[in-house]
Design a protein that fits this description.
By secondary structure, the chain is an alpha+beta fold. The protein has 30 helices and twelve strands. It folds into three domains: about 200 residues, no CATH class; about 240 residues, no CATH class; about 90 residues, no CATH class. The protein is flat.
Length: about 700
């Protein structure tokens, strides 16, 4: 043993002497190894941290640890990766209760949450529609005998103000483009609505006048929007309990046993809020939260320009008194004598880095209280029309109970583009049969005198059969009578199925679902748990497919995998270059040391001695510079952990599970870097070692000559 140690000592001494003798080559090779090891440490630490952060975002927002759906489905489930409104083509799971009971028997399963994904386009109306509806309501109440005479002139004045704004806007379009840019019928409609005698007609025929305004004037206001709503049907209480990052921002959650809708706060602010106010919010938050500047950011400059040029949406909301109030406030704030409120608003919204904070506060303190900031407010009824799976349109009126967000993901659209509704309403919109729907159909059949007949007797019942006894006239229903019955039932049915109608909470578990989220106790056992879930489904007579959170999130979940591949390819390229460089350096060093190697051979050095000498040289360079590089990488990660990496946009906000990523470092990150360095260094010494092993003492003497 002592002999081996002495030999190793000699090898190490000679190896380090040779390294110091060729310092320039050693530094070049070492620099490449240092950079590569540093990249591996920093890269793997960042990728692992993003993976952990994104898993928290996805698991905590909607997917859970595992998603379960029917294995017979034509498409794969993608909770976040499918951006189509109608979602994937999934087969239904007929009995959620049976599935839930089967899955809860799996040891690692903690909770099972029913789900279904779909979407709808919801018309939000425009400012003119809102004002005209208020005026129509006043007219109806007056005709019903209520004393609202004092309120009608003010509302009429507001409509006249809107018509004046639209007329000015139309005139401006004609100046900028040409008169042909405005359709003749639109010009004629505005001309009639601005004529004095038109408003004299209002008192004689208010409903007829309103019909003209709704059909001919309201469409000219271009501030109407269609709300594109993706939603998940679920058990609201179970969802909130299982996804503890969820919190209610406005209003309340959907009460147990009630139909209802919850807007995602991100969606509510982005699509439902007054566009000018939303853009002002974005500018304000970008400056305060993301350290951006209007002067240097093209996106913020674009938003400022949009706000300054698109003030019509605000002008349409103002009646004459509000217009006067806005004029006085804006003149004082801007120190301006301009009387045109639209120009004052345009100037006000031309914000810069110096006045954005003051004007933002002024807007919400002085102007916003007079404006309708949200087209749909908490407590309003939202009419959702969606295509069922079979292709026909179904609609439901749902009360908006509030808005919600996921803590830490407030600014992420990937976490915020799904809204929530109760599972019973989801089933009805999706076209699934429900107990209530079956009872309603049976009630309509019974009231209309309808009955089911056997196919074999259908012809006789419809055409050929004669009653054995004549029926009394009272028992014979005419077509008109049947229509009247159906209309009456339909009216009663609509009244009974108002948005706040209660249902039996047991229906949440006893019906159809499209998929379910599974929360587990130990995330490290997810692969085994998925196999156990599918086996449990088979025992219960269900064909279930279980996928983990990363696959369930679709394209979003593959992002980390893509980054990891990019990192590995980069590391592979760097160390492939390092392998070639180290190999060439050692080959050149070996050729330069032919005489020395031959002398060593002449005095009895074995071939393995020479191979070991070159191997020690390569490992010494790799170990030294690899260690330095790993230490530098660890230092960089430590600094990043303290300062954090800011999320430059809402996508990275989701990937970082918050506004900043604070990466962590594990022993595995350092071990992987050192292992790669040592393997590459050792491999690069093999070919030079083979060259050295072929050198003979005769070659050494010939080189001396």
């Amino acid at each position: 043993m002592r002999g081996y140690l002495d030999t190793l000592k000699v090898i190490v001494v000679i190896a380090f002497r040779n390294l110091f003798a060729s310092r320039l080559k050693t530094l070049i090779v070492g620099g490449i190894i240092l950079f590569g090891s540093m990249l591996v440490v920093v890269g793997t630490a960042l990728v692992d941290s993003v993976d952990a952060s994104m898993s928290r975002s996805i698991i905590g927002s909607v997917t859970g640890h595992i998603q379960v759906y029917n294995a017979k489905s034509a498409d794969e489930l993608a909770v976040m990766g499918n951006f189509q409104m109608e979602g994937a083509d999934l087969e239904q799971i007929d009995d959620f209760k049976t599935m839930r009971e089967a899955l809860l028997k799996v040891p690692n399963v903690k909770t099972v949450v029913p789900m279904g994904l779909s979407g709808a386009m919801v018309p939000a109306g425009n400012s003119v529609d809102v004002v005209l509806e208020k005026l129509r309501d006043l007219v109806r109440r007056q005709q019903a005998g209520e004393d609202v005479k004092a309120a009608i002139p003010s509302q009429k004045d507001h409509v006249r103000q809107i018509v004046a704004v639209l007329a000015t806007d139309m005139a401006n379009v004609g100046k900028v483009l040409n008169d042909k840019a405005v359709a003749p019928e639109e010009r004629a409609a505005i001309a009639r609505a601005t004529a004095p005698d038109f408003w004299d007609e209002f008192d004689q025929d208010p409903l007829g006048t309103l019909e003209f305004l709704e059909n001919r004037i309201a469409p000219l206001a271009s501030d109407a929007d269609m709300l594109f709503l993706r939603y998940v049907g679920t058990d609201p209480a179970a969802f909130a309990k299982s996804f503890d990052r969820m919190k209610i921002v406005d209003g309340t959650t959907i009460p147990p046993g009630r139909r209802g809708f919850l807007f995602s706060k991100w969606m509510y602010e982005g699509q439902v809020k007054l566009k000018t106010a939303h853009r002002l919010d974005v500018i304000h938050d970008a400056i305060l939260k993301r350290d951006k500047a209007i002067a240097t950011d093209p996106d913020l400059q674009r938003l400022v320009k949009q706000n300054a040029t698109e003030v019509k949406e605000i002008m349409l909301q103002l009646d004459s008194q509000q217009t006067d109030a806005f004029r006085a406030k804006l003149q004082k704030e801007l120190a301006s004598q301009e009387s045109d409120v639209s120009k004052l608003l345009a100037e006000f919204f031309r914000v810069d880095d110096g006045n954005i904070i003051r004007r933002y506060k002024f807007f919400y303190d002085e102007l916003a209280p007079s404006l309708t900031l949200y087209r749909v407010r908490v407590g309003d009824t939202l009419t959702i029309k969606a295509f069922t799976k079979s292709g026909y349109v179904q609609s439901r009126n749902l009360r908006v109970y509030g808005t919600f967000t996921f803590e830490g993901l407030e600014d992420s659209h990937l976490a915020g583009n799904l809204n929530l509704m109760d599972m019973v309403s989801f089933r009805e919109l999706y076209g699934f049969a429900t107990p209530e729907r079956d009872r309603e159909i049976q009630a309509i059949k019974a009231a209309a005198g309808l009955k089911e007949i056997d196919r074999d007797h259908a012809e006789a019942e419809l055409f050929g059969a004669q009653p054995s006894e004549p029926e009394s006239p009272a028992a014979v229903a005419t077509v008109d009578d049947a229509d009247a019955v159906l209309r009456g039932l339909a009216g009663k049915h609509r009244r009974e199925r108002r948005e706040d109608q209660a249902y039996d909470p047991a229906q949440l578990e006893q019906g159809v679902v499209l998929n379910a989220a599974v929360i587990v106790r130990d995330p490290r056992r997810i692969p085994q748990t998925m196999r156990d879930i599918e086996a449990a489904g088979t025992r219960a007579g269900l064909t279930l497919k279980a996928i983990d959170w990363q696959k369930a999130s679709g394209l979003v979940g593959q992002f980390v995998t893509m980054i990891r591949y990019v990192l590995y390819i980069s590391v592979l390229i760097i160390f492939a270059v390092a392998l070639v460089v180290i190999n060439n350096a050692l080959v050149m060093t070996t050729l330069e040391r032919i005489a020395e190697i031959g002398t060593l051979r002449a005095v009895g050095a074995q071939r393995r001695f020479l191979l070991g000498m070159l191997l020690v040289e390569a490992l010494a360079v790799g170990g030294l510079f690899g260690g330095i590089g790993s230490a530098l990488g660890a230092g960089i990660v430590a600094v990043l952990r303290i300062v954090g990496i800011p999320a430059v946009n809402d996508i990275f906000y989701f990937f970082f599970s918050g506004p900043r990523l604070h990466p962590g470092l594990s022993v595995a990150n350092l071990a992987i870097a050192l292992a790669i360095v040592l393997v590459v260094s050792g491999a690069s010494s093999i070919y030079p070692g083979l060259i050295a092993m072929r050198v003979s003492p005769r070659q050494a003497m010939q080189s001396d000559e």
